């Protein structure tokens, strides 16, 4: 039978602090304490003191670590100490209530002496006891494990401010210049896999390119995008506008691969790339969310592209996207001669 886990003591935390300060590896600390390496790694991650105002005070301090661990256990044990309260919380979770709703309702009910923060409920849900009861599946947003807030990477580092759509030139915004595109992914039912359809639309002509991806990883998507647009003249692929989805974090591949500039919508503002959003609605008539994308052949996708590009548009004076697109390409060829 496996030995049950024993919480780290103050003495053990003192040893960890001393060895960590001497820059001794986590593996050596674990061997010195006869602990698993993951225990040391988890301890340093959870009880490391972060102080943004006084960076010099940041570090692993054994007294502070003990206090943080005790506070965490005290909050976590509140539901275990009160079986009746725990049962009530679980019932509300199964009824579809969020932890915040449960906490707020407990505070609102008159005469209720049970006060519980939503953070405590989340901690219980993702605790070993909560996982045994599969409580996470009752949450509005289901995750296999909880992600700490401080570990989330700020999107501003991935999508810099200089590439924000508010800095996009007026010549692109007005659609007066050819060669500026918008791109998006069309997602389908999860049970049918991660395959998706990429939609790429030229803003002035509304010319559409569709292609299938077998997953949502950014680099393969960007590689496919480069393969689709690279054969065009440089003036016909000057820029691409995306939303801030994680599937577009490798956008720099476009600049390296074909010298195309990338622009990004503001957070939660997909309407700022309205051309591709409108095109997605048209495509959904033929590829609804329940479509099994892997069953759709490349020939069918090309046929759908032709259908969209050969359909007259009111915004184009009832010309087709293909006619406008071909006219601009022909003009570029003449200029290069």
In short:
The chain has 337 residues and is of the alpha/beta class. It has helices spanning 10-21, 26-33, 37-46, 62-81, 83-94, 99-108, 118-125, 128-132, 155-158, 170-173, 218-229, 252-258, 274-284, 298-309, 321-336; strands at 180-186, 196-202, 208-213, 239-242, 261-264. A 5-stranded mixed beta sheet has the order 3-2-1-4-5, with helices on both faces.
Main features:
337 residues, alpha/beta, Nucleotidyltransferase, domain 5, 3 domains, 5-stranded mixed β-sheet, 5 strands, Transposase, IS30 family, DNA recombination
What do you see in this structure?
The protein has 337 residues and is of the alpha/beta class. The chain has three domains: 70 residues, no CATH class; 57 residues; 180 residues, Ribonuclease H-like superfamily/Ribonuclease H (Nucleotidyltransferase, domain 5, 2-Layer Sandwich). It is built from 15 helices and five strands. It has a five-stranded mixed beta sheet with strand order 3-2-1-4-5, with helices on both faces. A hairpin with a 5-residue loop joins strand 2 and strand 3. It is elongated and about 80 Å long. It starts with 9 loop residues before the first helix and ends with a helix. The relative contact order is 0.08. The mean pLDDT is 85.
